[in-house]
Design brief:
alpha+beta, binds 2',3'-dideoxycytidine 5'-triphosphate, nucleus, transferase, DNA binding, DNA-directed DNA polymerase activity, 10 strands, five-stranded mixed β-sheet, binds magnesium ion, nucleotidyltransferase
Protein backbone atom coordinates (compact mmCIF):
# COMPACT_ATOMS: atom_id res chain seq x y z
CA UNK A 1 0.00 0.00 0.00
CA UNK A 2 2.92 2.32 0.64
CA UNK A 3 3.37 3.08 -3.05
CA UNK A 4 -0.17 4.31 -3.15
CA UNK A 5 0.06 6.40 0.01
CA UNK A 6 3.22 8.04 -1.26
CA UNK A 7 1.79 9.06 -4.61
CA UNK A 8 -1.48 10.20 -3.04
CA UNK A 9 0.39 12.45 -0.63
CA UNK A 10 2.23 14.14 -3.44
CA UNK A 11 -0.86 14.29 -5.62
CA UNK A 12 0.77 12.38 -8.41
CA UNK A 13 -0.81 9.82 -10.72
CA UNK A 14 -1.17 6.37 -9.22
CA UNK A 15 -1.40 3.28 -11.43
CA UNK A 16 0.21 4.98 -14.41
CA UNK A 17 3.29 5.58 -12.35
CA UNK A 18 3.42 1.96 -11.23
CA UNK A 19 3.23 0.84 -14.83
CA UNK A 20 6.33 2.89 -15.65
CA UNK A 21 8.06 1.47 -12.63
CA UNK A 22 7.40 -2.08 -13.69
CA UNK A 23 8.32 -1.50 -17.32
CA UNK A 24 11.58 0.10 -16.28
CA UNK A 25 12.66 -2.96 -14.37
CA UNK A 26 11.46 -5.70 -16.73
CA UNK A 27 12.77 -6.89 -20.10
CA UNK A 28 11.10 -5.00 -22.96
CA UNK A 29 10.01 -7.90 -25.18
CA UNK A 30 6.50 -9.41 -24.95
CA UNK A 31 3.24 -7.68 -24.07
CA UNK A 32 3.37 -4.92 -21.44
CA UNK A 33 2.80 -6.48 -18.01
CA UNK A 34 -0.30 -5.64 -16.00
CA UNK A 35 0.64 -3.27 -13.17
CA UNK A 36 0.53 -5.51 -10.10
CA UNK A 37 -0.29 -2.78 -7.63
CA UNK A 38 -3.02 -1.12 -9.75
CA UNK A 39 -6.54 -0.84 -8.32
CA UNK A 40 -8.82 -3.36 -10.04
CA UNK A 41 -12.10 -2.36 -11.66
CA UNK A 42 -13.67 -5.34 -9.84
CA UNK A 43 -14.61 -4.96 -6.16
CA UNK A 44 -13.84 -8.67 -5.65
CA UNK A 45 -10.17 -7.88 -6.42
CA UNK A 46 -10.01 -5.10 -3.85
CA UNK A 47 -9.99 -5.19 -0.05
CA UNK A 48 -12.53 -2.78 1.40
CA UNK A 49 -12.89 -2.46 5.17
CA UNK A 50 -15.60 -0.47 6.98
CA UNK A 51 -13.14 2.41 7.32
CA UNK A 52 -14.11 4.76 4.51
CA UNK A 53 -11.57 7.54 4.00
CA UNK A 54 -13.54 9.18 1.21
CA UNK A 55 -16.98 9.59 2.76
CA UNK A 56 -17.42 13.17 1.51
CA UNK A 57 -17.25 11.84 -2.06
CA UNK A 58 -19.03 8.51 -1.61
CA UNK A 59 -22.01 10.08 0.22
CA UNK A 60 -22.39 12.52 -2.67
CA UNK A 61 -22.16 9.70 -5.25
CA UNK A 62 -24.76 7.67 -3.33
CA UNK A 63 -27.27 10.56 -3.52
CA UNK A 64 -26.78 10.83 -7.28
CA UNK A 65 -26.88 7.04 -7.78
CA UNK A 66 -30.15 6.83 -5.86
CA UNK A 67 -31.63 9.71 -7.83
CA UNK A 68 -30.76 7.94 -11.11
CA UNK A 69 -32.22 4.74 -9.69
CA UNK A 70 -35.52 6.57 -9.01
CA UNK A 71 -35.48 7.66 -12.66
CA UNK A 72 -34.64 4.10 -13.78
CA UNK A 73 -31.41 5.27 -15.39
CA UNK A 74 -29.36 2.15 -14.68
CA UNK A 75 -26.20 3.22 -16.52
CA UNK A 76 -25.40 6.42 -14.60
CA UNK A 77 -26.67 4.85 -11.36
CA UNK A 78 -24.19 1.97 -11.66
CA UNK A 79 -21.40 4.35 -12.73
CA UNK A 80 -21.74 6.35 -9.49
CA UNK A 81 -22.01 3.17 -7.37
CA UNK A 82 -18.83 1.75 -8.98
CA UNK A 83 -16.98 5.03 -8.50
CA UNK A 84 -18.02 5.18 -4.83
CA UNK A 85 -16.89 1.59 -4.36
CA UNK A 86 -13.42 2.29 -5.80
CA UNK A 87 -12.96 5.30 -3.48
CA UNK A 88 -14.09 3.24 -0.46
CA UNK A 89 -11.20 0.83 -1.06
CA UNK A 90 -8.50 3.51 -0.89
CA UNK A 91 -6.26 3.63 2.21
CA UNK A 92 -6.56 7.41 2.49
CA UNK A 93 -8.60 10.41 1.43
CA UNK A 94 -8.12 11.62 -2.13
CA UNK A 95 -6.39 15.00 -1.65
CA UNK A 96 -6.73 16.30 -5.23
CA UNK A 97 -8.04 15.23 -8.61
CA UNK A 98 -4.56 14.41 -9.92
CA UNK A 99 -4.31 11.63 -7.34
CA UNK A 100 -7.18 9.78 -9.03
CA UNK A 101 -5.27 9.32 -12.28
CA UNK A 102 -5.08 5.66 -13.16
CA UNK A 103 -7.97 4.69 -10.86
CA UNK A 104 -10.70 2.69 -12.64
CA UNK A 105 -14.42 3.58 -12.86
CA UNK A 106 -13.98 7.33 -12.50
CA UNK A 107 -15.46 9.10 -15.52
CA UNK A 108 -15.86 12.74 -16.51
CA UNK A 109 -19.07 13.16 -14.55
CA UNK A 110 -17.78 11.62 -11.30
CA UNK A 111 -14.56 13.62 -11.54
CA UNK A 112 -16.46 16.88 -12.06
CA UNK A 113 -18.44 16.18 -8.87
CA UNK A 114 -15.22 15.37 -6.99
CA UNK A 115 -13.56 18.52 -8.25
CA UNK A 116 -16.39 20.68 -6.89
CA UNK A 117 -16.30 18.89 -3.52
CA UNK A 118 -12.52 19.37 -3.32
CA UNK A 119 -12.90 23.05 -4.11
CA UNK A 120 -16.07 24.09 -2.28
CA UNK A 121 -16.79 21.21 0.08
CA UNK A 122 -20.00 20.39 -1.80
CA UNK A 123 -21.32 19.82 -5.30
CA UNK A 124 -24.13 21.76 -6.97
CA UNK A 125 -25.77 18.71 -8.54
CA UNK A 126 -25.91 16.93 -5.17
CA UNK A 127 -27.36 19.99 -3.40
CA UNK A 128 -29.95 20.34 -6.16
CA UNK A 129 -30.92 16.66 -5.88
CA UNK A 130 -31.19 16.81 -2.08
CA UNK A 131 -33.59 19.75 -2.31
CA UNK A 132 -35.60 18.23 -5.16
CA UNK A 133 -39.19 17.48 -4.13
CA UNK A 134 -39.43 14.28 -6.15
CA UNK A 135 -36.16 12.91 -4.74
CA UNK A 136 -37.16 13.82 -1.17
CA UNK A 137 -40.59 12.23 -1.53
CA UNK A 138 -39.38 9.00 -3.16
CA UNK A 139 -36.64 8.75 -0.51
CA UNK A 140 -39.25 9.17 2.24
CA UNK A 141 -41.73 6.68 0.77
CA UNK A 142 -39.10 3.98 0.03
CA UNK A 143 -37.90 4.25 3.64
CA UNK A 144 -41.07 2.36 4.61
CA UNK A 145 -40.66 -1.45 4.86
CA UNK A 146 -42.61 -2.93 1.93
CA UNK A 147 -42.54 0.18 -0.28
CA UNK A 148 -40.32 -0.12 -3.35
CA UNK A 149 -39.49 2.51 -5.99
CA UNK A 150 -42.50 1.50 -8.17
CA UNK A 151 -45.08 2.06 -5.41
CA UNK A 152 -43.33 5.23 -4.25
CA UNK A 153 -43.46 6.61 -7.82
CA UNK A 154 -47.15 5.73 -8.15
CA UNK A 155 -47.99 7.60 -4.94
CA UNK A 156 -45.84 10.56 -5.98
CA UNK A 157 -47.62 10.81 -9.35
CA UNK A 158 -50.93 10.91 -7.55
CA UNK A 159 -49.76 14.05 -5.76
CA UNK A 160 -49.06 12.43 -2.39
CA UNK A 161 -46.11 13.95 -0.55
CA UNK A 162 -46.18 12.81 3.10
CA UNK A 163 -47.06 9.80 5.26
CA UNK A 164 -50.22 11.58 6.41
CA UNK A 165 -51.21 12.11 2.75
CA UNK A 166 -50.91 8.33 2.20
CA UNK A 167 -52.63 7.28 5.40
CA UNK A 168 -55.49 9.73 4.77
CA UNK A 169 -56.07 8.59 1.18
CA UNK A 170 -59.11 6.26 1.25
CA UNK A 171 -58.39 4.69 -2.15
CA UNK A 172 -54.97 3.39 -1.05
CA UNK A 173 -54.98 -0.19 0.20
CA UNK A 174 -51.76 -0.88 2.07
CA UNK A 175 -50.65 -4.52 2.01
CA UNK A 176 -49.72 -6.38 5.23
CA UNK A 177 -46.03 -5.61 4.85
CA UNK A 178 -46.63 -1.88 4.35
CA UNK A 179 -49.08 -1.76 7.29
CA UNK A 180 -46.38 -3.25 9.52
CA UNK A 181 -43.86 -0.90 7.95
CA UNK A 182 -45.91 2.12 9.04
CA UNK A 183 -46.83 0.63 12.42
CA UNK A 184 -43.17 0.04 13.39
CA UNK A 185 -41.70 2.87 11.32
CA UNK A 186 -39.81 4.65 14.13
CA UNK A 187 -38.27 1.44 15.45
CA UNK A 188 -37.22 -0.22 12.21
CA UNK A 189 -35.82 2.95 10.67
CA UNK A 190 -33.46 3.26 13.66
CA UNK A 191 -30.20 1.33 13.22
CA UNK A 192 -29.73 -2.10 14.83
CA UNK A 193 -26.60 -2.29 17.00
CA UNK A 194 -24.10 -5.13 17.15
CA UNK A 195 -25.25 -5.98 20.70
CA UNK A 196 -28.86 -6.16 19.47
CA UNK A 197 -27.76 -8.39 16.56
CA UNK A 198 -26.02 -10.68 19.07
CA UNK A 199 -29.15 -10.87 21.24
CA UNK A 200 -31.25 -11.80 18.19
CA UNK A 201 -28.63 -14.42 17.27
CA UNK A 202 -29.12 -16.00 20.71
CA UNK A 203 -32.90 -16.14 20.24
CA UNK A 204 -32.65 -17.74 16.77
CA UNK A 205 -29.86 -20.09 17.91
CA UNK A 206 -32.03 -21.36 20.74
CA UNK A 207 -34.88 -21.98 18.29
CA UNK A 208 -32.68 -23.82 15.78
CA UNK A 209 -31.12 -26.06 18.42
CA UNK A 210 -34.48 -26.86 19.98
CA UNK A 211 -35.41 -28.32 16.58
CA UNK A 212 -32.23 -30.25 15.84
CA UNK A 213 -28.99 -30.47 17.85
CA UNK A 214 -26.87 -30.38 14.68
CA UNK A 215 -28.67 -27.32 13.27
CA UNK A 216 -26.43 -24.59 11.89
CA UNK A 217 -26.85 -20.85 12.39
CA UNK A 218 -24.62 -18.28 10.68
CA UNK A 219 -24.68 -14.51 10.86
CA UNK A 220 -24.43 -12.93 7.39
CA UNK A 221 -25.07 -9.48 5.84
CA UNK A 222 -23.42 -6.31 7.10
CA UNK A 223 -22.76 -7.61 10.63
CA UNK A 224 -20.65 -10.47 9.25
CA UNK A 225 -18.63 -7.79 7.41
CA UNK A 226 -17.91 -6.15 10.76
CA UNK A 227 -20.38 -3.26 10.57
CA UNK A 228 -21.28 -1.65 13.91
CA UNK A 229 -24.87 -0.93 12.81
CA UNK A 230 -27.30 -2.34 10.26
CA UNK A 231 -30.82 -1.83 8.94
CA UNK A 232 -31.62 -5.47 9.74
CA UNK A 233 -29.93 -8.70 10.89
CA UNK A 234 -29.41 -11.47 8.33
CA UNK A 235 -29.01 -15.15 9.26
CA UNK A 236 -28.58 -18.45 7.44
CA UNK A 237 -30.17 -21.46 9.14
CA UNK A 238 -29.66 -24.99 7.90
CA UNK A 239 -29.02 -28.61 8.83
CA UNK A 240 -26.66 -31.29 7.46
CA UNK A 241 -29.70 -33.50 6.77
CA UNK A 242 -30.42 -32.71 3.12
CA UNK A 243 -34.07 -31.88 2.48
CA UNK A 244 -34.79 -31.16 6.15
CA UNK A 245 -33.71 -27.51 5.86
CA UNK A 246 -37.05 -26.47 4.31
CA UNK A 247 -38.91 -27.34 7.50
CA UNK A 248 -36.63 -25.26 9.76
CA UNK A 249 -38.07 -21.79 9.10
CA UNK A 250 -41.75 -22.76 9.61
CA UNK A 251 -40.85 -24.36 12.96
CA UNK A 252 -38.77 -21.34 14.02
CA UNK A 253 -41.68 -19.03 13.10
CA UNK A 254 -44.00 -21.20 15.18
CA UNK A 255 -41.74 -20.93 18.20
CA UNK A 256 -41.33 -17.14 17.85
CA UNK A 257 -45.12 -16.84 17.68
CA UNK A 258 -45.55 -18.87 20.89
CA UNK A 259 -42.92 -16.68 22.57
CA UNK A 260 -45.06 -13.67 21.63
CA UNK A 261 -42.22 -11.88 19.85
CA UNK A 262 -43.28 -12.25 16.20
CA UNK A 263 -44.63 -8.85 15.10
CA UNK A 264 -44.61 -9.53 11.35
CA UNK A 265 -43.73 -12.47 9.13
CA UNK A 266 -43.47 -12.82 5.36
CA UNK A 267 -42.56 -16.47 4.73
CA UNK A 268 -41.51 -17.59 1.24
CA UNK A 269 -41.30 -21.34 0.74
CA UNK A 270 -38.40 -22.75 -1.26
CA UNK A 271 -38.71 -22.74 -5.05
CA UNK A 272 -35.19 -24.10 -5.42
CA UNK A 273 -34.99 -26.59 -8.28
CA UNK A 274 -31.58 -28.01 -9.20
CA UNK A 275 -32.77 -28.85 -12.71
CA UNK A 276 -33.30 -25.14 -13.46
CA UNK A 277 -29.69 -24.17 -12.74
CA UNK A 278 -27.85 -22.08 -13.74
CA UNK A 279 -29.99 -19.01 -13.30
CA UNK A 280 -29.13 -16.52 -16.05
CA UNK A 281 -30.95 -13.56 -14.55
CA UNK A 282 -28.42 -11.22 -13.07
CA UNK A 283 -29.11 -10.25 -9.45
CA UNK A 284 -32.29 -12.28 -9.28
CA UNK A 285 -33.41 -13.13 -5.74
CA UNK A 286 -32.47 -16.68 -4.78
CA UNK A 287 -34.93 -19.57 -4.52
CA UNK A 288 -34.18 -20.82 -1.00
CA UNK A 289 -36.82 -20.88 1.74
CA UNK A 290 -36.67 -17.54 3.54
CA UNK A 291 -38.58 -15.14 5.73
CA UNK A 292 -38.60 -11.40 6.34
CA UNK A 293 -39.51 -10.76 9.96
CA UNK A 294 -40.15 -8.00 12.45
CA UNK A 295 -39.34 -9.21 15.97
CA UNK A 296 -39.92 -7.75 19.38
CA UNK A 297 -36.58 -7.48 21.19
CA UNK A 298 -36.55 -7.00 24.98
CA UNK A 299 -34.00 -4.60 26.46
CA UNK A 300 -33.13 -7.13 29.19
CA UNK A 301 -31.75 -9.47 26.51
CA UNK A 302 -29.32 -6.91 25.09
CA UNK A 303 -25.91 -6.40 26.66
CA UNK A 304 -25.62 -2.68 27.41
CA UNK A 305 -29.31 -2.13 26.59
CA UNK A 306 -31.32 -1.19 23.51
CA UNK A 307 -30.43 1.38 20.88
CA UNK A 308 -33.57 3.39 21.76
CA UNK A 309 -34.79 6.76 20.63
CA UNK A 310 -34.32 9.58 23.13
CA UNK A 311 -37.26 9.89 25.50
CA UNK A 312 -38.53 6.38 24.70
CA UNK A 313 -39.38 4.68 28.00
CA UNK A 314 -40.38 1.27 26.55
CA UNK A 315 -38.06 -1.61 27.38
CA UNK A 316 -38.43 -3.19 23.95
CA UNK A 317 -38.07 -2.30 20.30
CA UNK A 318 -39.06 -3.76 16.93
CA UNK A 319 -36.24 -5.03 14.67
CA UNK A 320 -36.04 -6.41 11.14
CA UNK A 321 -34.61 -9.93 10.80
CA UNK A 322 -34.10 -12.00 7.62
CA UNK A 323 -33.65 -15.79 7.68
CA UNK A 324 -32.65 -17.87 4.66
CA UNK A 325 -32.41 -21.63 4.56
CA UNK A 326 -30.31 -23.21 1.78
CA UNK A 327 -29.66 -26.96 1.58
CA UNK A 328 -26.26 -27.83 3.07
CA UNK A 329 -24.64 -28.53 -0.33
CA UNK A 330 -25.45 -24.89 -1.32
CA UNK A 331 -24.33 -23.38 1.98
CA UNK A 332 -21.09 -21.79 0.70
CA UNK A 333 -22.87 -20.10 -2.24
CA UNK A 334 -25.68 -18.80 -0.02
CA UNK A 335 -23.20 -17.53 2.59
CA UNK A 336 -21.10 -15.75 -0.04
CA UNK A 337 -24.20 -14.21 -1.64
CA UNK A 338 -25.84 -13.05 1.60
CA UNK A 339 -22.66 -11.63 3.12
CA UNK A 340 -22.57 -8.85 0.51
CA UNK A 341 -21.95 -6.03 0.11
CA UNK A 342 -24.28 -5.58 -2.85
CA UNK A 343 -21.49 -4.02 -4.89
CA UNK A 344 -19.12 -6.83 -3.95
CA UNK A 345 -21.71 -9.40 -5.10
CA UNK A 346 -22.39 -7.56 -8.35
CA UNK A 347 -18.69 -7.50 -9.17
CA UNK A 348 -18.11 -11.15 -8.19
CA UNK A 349 -20.76 -12.13 -10.73
CA UNK A 350 -19.50 -9.69 -13.36
CA UNK A 351 -15.93 -10.93 -12.84
CA UNK A 352 -17.05 -14.57 -13.13
CA UNK A 353 -18.91 -13.85 -16.37
CA UNK A 354 -16.51 -11.44 -18.08
CA UNK A 355 -13.14 -12.81 -16.98
CA UNK A 356 -13.80 -16.52 -16.45
CA UNK A 357 -16.82 -17.43 -18.60
CA UNK A 358 -18.62 -18.64 -15.46
CA UNK A 359 -22.03 -17.98 -13.98
CA UNK A 360 -22.24 -17.34 -10.25
CA UNK A 361 -25.33 -16.88 -8.13
CA UNK A 362 -26.49 -17.73 -4.59
CA UNK A 363 -27.09 -21.36 -5.65
CA UNK A 364 -24.13 -22.46 -7.74
CA UNK A 365 -21.09 -21.75 -9.92
CA UNK A 366 -21.27 -22.93 -13.53
CA UNK A 367 -18.34 -23.14 -15.94
CA UNK A 368 -19.73 -22.34 -19.41
CA UNK A 369 -16.64 -23.62 -21.23
CA UNK A 370 -16.47 -26.97 -19.44
CA UNK A 371 -20.27 -27.07 -19.24
CA UNK A 372 -20.16 -28.23 -15.62
CA UNK A 373 -21.02 -27.09 -12.12
CA UNK A 374 -18.16 -26.48 -9.71
CA UNK A 375 -18.87 -27.77 -6.21
CA UNK A 376 -17.88 -25.84 -3.08
CA UNK A 377 -18.13 -26.47 0.64
CA UNK A 378 -16.49 -23.21 1.71
CA UNK A 379 -16.28 -19.65 0.40
CA UNK A 380 -12.55 -20.26 -0.14
CA UNK A 381 -13.45 -23.01 -2.65
CA UNK A 382 -15.50 -20.52 -4.67
CA UNK A 383 -12.75 -17.87 -4.71
CA UNK A 384 -10.29 -20.62 -5.77
CA UNK A 385 -12.57 -21.81 -8.62
CA UNK A 386 -12.71 -18.19 -9.81
CA UNK A 387 -8.93 -17.81 -9.57
CA UNK A 388 -9.35 -14.98 -7.06
CA UNK A 389 -7.36 -14.27 -3.92
CA UNK A 390 -9.53 -14.92 -0.88
CA UNK A 391 -11.14 -11.78 0.48
CA UNK A 392 -12.20 -11.94 4.15
CA UNK A 393 -15.80 -10.93 4.97
CA UNK A 394 -14.60 -7.76 6.73
CA UNK A 395 -12.78 -6.79 3.51
CA UNK A 396 -15.96 -7.01 1.40
CA UNK A 397 -17.44 -3.62 2.33
CA UNK A 398 -17.26 -2.45 -1.29
N1 LIG B 1 -28.08 -8.93 -1.35
C1 LIG B 1 -27.73 -8.91 -2.68
N2 LIG B 1 -28.60 -8.39 -3.59
C2 LIG B 1 -29.77 -7.87 -3.19
C3 LIG B 1 -30.12 -7.88 -1.84
C4 LIG B 1 -29.25 -8.41 -0.93
O1 LIG B 1 -26.67 -9.39 -3.07
N3 LIG B 1 -30.59 -7.36 -4.12
C5 LIG B 1 -27.12 -9.49 -0.39
C6 LIG B 1 -26.02 -8.53 -0.08
C7 LIG B 1 -26.16 -8.21 1.36
C8 LIG B 1 -27.12 -9.25 1.91
O2 LIG B 1 -27.78 -9.80 0.82
C9 LIG B 1 -28.04 -8.68 2.93
O3 LIG B 1 -28.76 -7.58 2.40
P1 LIG B 1 -29.04 -6.29 3.27
O4 LIG B 1 -29.47 -6.66 4.63
O5 LIG B 1 -29.97 -5.44 2.47
O6 LIG B 1 -27.62 -5.55 3.27
P2 LIG B 1 -26.52 -5.41 4.39
O7 LIG B 1 -25.24 -5.41 3.65
O8 LIG B 1 -26.72 -6.42 5.45
O9 LIG B 1 -26.74 -3.95 4.93
P3 LIG B 1 -27.62 -3.46 6.18
O10 LIG B 1 -26.63 -3.19 7.24
O11 LIG B 1 -28.28 -2.22 5.71
O12 LIG B 1 -28.58 -4.51 6.54
MG1 LIG C 1 -28.52 -6.63 6.51
Amino acid sequence: ISWFTESMREGRPVAVETRHLIQDTLPTEGPPPTPVAAVSQYACQRRTTIENNNKIFTDAFEVLAESYEFSELEGPCLAFRRAASVLKSLPMAVPCLAATQGLPCLGEHTKAVMEEILRYGRAFEVEKTLSDERYQTLKLFTSVFGVGPKTAEKWYRRGLRSFSDILAEPSIQLNQMQQSGFLHYEDISRAVSKAEARALGNIIDEAVHAITPDGILALTGGFRRGKEFGHDVDFIVTTPELGMETSLIPIIINRLTRQGILLYCDYQASTFDKSKLPCHRFEAMDHFAKCFLILRLEGSQVEGGLNSAEGDSRDWRAVRVDLVSPPMDRYAFALLGWTGSRQFERDLRRFARMERGMLLDNHALYDKTKKEFLAATTERDIFAHLGLEYIEPWQRNA
